[in-house]
Amino acid sequence: MFSVAIELGAVGTLRHYRPLPVSPDLRGYAGEQSQIRAAVGTEGVSITGLSARYCPTGRDIYLEKVLKLETPSWPRSVIGKVVDPVLVDLHTIGMDQLDDAFEKSVRTGRAVSFRDLETNIITAAEDAARRRLLSEWTYPGKHPDFRNLTLDDFAERMAGEGGADLIANTLAAIVDLIRHETKLLIAYLRRCRRGRFGLGYFTPSSNWMAEARAALTRLQTGVTLDNKRYPARVFGVRNGVCPDFLYAVTLVGDLKTGPYEQFHEGVAIGYAIFAEFALARRINTAFILSIDLDLTAGKLRSHRIYRIRADDQQRQRWITQRDSALTILRSGSVPPHPSDLQRCSRCPYSHHCWEGGYPGTTPLLPAPHSPAASTAGLP
């Protein structure tokens, strides 16, 4: 995740650390006066699950969390589960190679060879990515028809005779992502050595290595925030609150694959609120690293970091989403079909709601009688 460390730690990005006035009772660490804490005994949902809603009525939340329906797909079951560890591996490998190159430069008095450094990082990271995808992947759910499948078998289920091409294009796109991230790192290091980065903070002396390394090593991954002292249930969320990255213990963010969705902001805000609770400090800014792979061309389609300011409005919106989700889960009945079908075509549960998965056809899983329920597809 070099791109994240560079974006969050480089000079010229100080806007991420600006003070932000937030109501005291909307801070994650607020005590008895908190507006955010959930009712005692509330059953939790993941932070992503609270915000990642396609359906206006919340059917997708109910189908997943209550009826335990799974929606196996290549983007959700493979891409979404492989890209994060691949980037963590890349960061670990890159820092090891960078340290070796820096130490060699100090020992020999010779300049760092950026070409060799780039080649070494990419070679090792590509090998690690192949292992992650081709050897170590397992189906992440409990669906009996999928949980024991190999990657080849799962690809065949998803793409038929095109399964082998799907795997090959997925690996090619991941390799393209690795090379993109590594080139960002090398370009950053070159700027540091020239002393032309940001406000000229980095000087042409040997100190540039220390400064560059400090900016990159402040990134933390795989940090679980909740524990017995800071239980997830306090906010009505499920155990295992683990944002994809923390930076300098003041910035928090998550990785999302596929096209960027507006609800990703809610995920980032949820992590910011809980990080305030667990770390007892103000978290004013959250981030989404959005990565979209083109599996037809085997290329990286888009790579962008979104910054979300955790202001009062965003926090209030998250509380509303959280309370709505918990109400849906406690309702005991499947929410009605939506009257607005605009988002149905992108919802992973559309085939559980509409015959053939086509919005507006005959509704499946009959909805409860409600004036808000859609009559689309009914006689």
Q: Uncertain segments of ≥5 residues (pLDDT<50)?
A: 197-204, 366-379
Give the rounded overall mean pLDDT.
Answer: 88
What is the tally of beta strands?
A: 5
Give the proportion of residues in helices.
40-55%
Question: Strand portion, in percent?
Answer: 5-15%
Molecular shape: globular
What composes the largest sheet?
A: 5 strands, mixed
- End-to-end CA span: 53 Å
What keywords describe this structure?
379 residues; alpha+beta; 5-stranded mixed sheet; 44% helix; 9% strand; globular; disordered C terminus
Give structural notes.
The chain is an alpha+beta fold. The protein has a domain of 146 residues. Helices cover 44% and strands 9% of the residues. It is built from 11 helices and 5 strands, in the order H-H-H-H-H-H-H-H-E-E-E-H-E-E-H-H. It has a 5-stranded mixed beta sheet. A hairpin with a 3-residue loop joins strand 2 and strand 3. Helix 4 packs parallel to helix 7. The C terminus is likely disordered.
Q: How would you briefly describe this protein structure?
A:
The protein has 379 residues and is an alpha+beta fold. Helix content is 44%, strand content 9%.
Could you give the topology of this structure?
Layout lengths: L1 H8 L37 H5 L7 H7 L8 H35 L5 H22 L15 H9 L3 H32 L12 H11 L1 E2 L24 E3 L3 E7 L6 H16 L5 E10 L4 E11 L2 H19 L19 H4 L26
Parallel strand pairs: 3-4
Antiparallel strand pairs: 1-2, 2-3, 4-5
Helix pairs in contact: 4-5, 4-7, 4-8, 5-7, 6-7, 7-8, 9-10
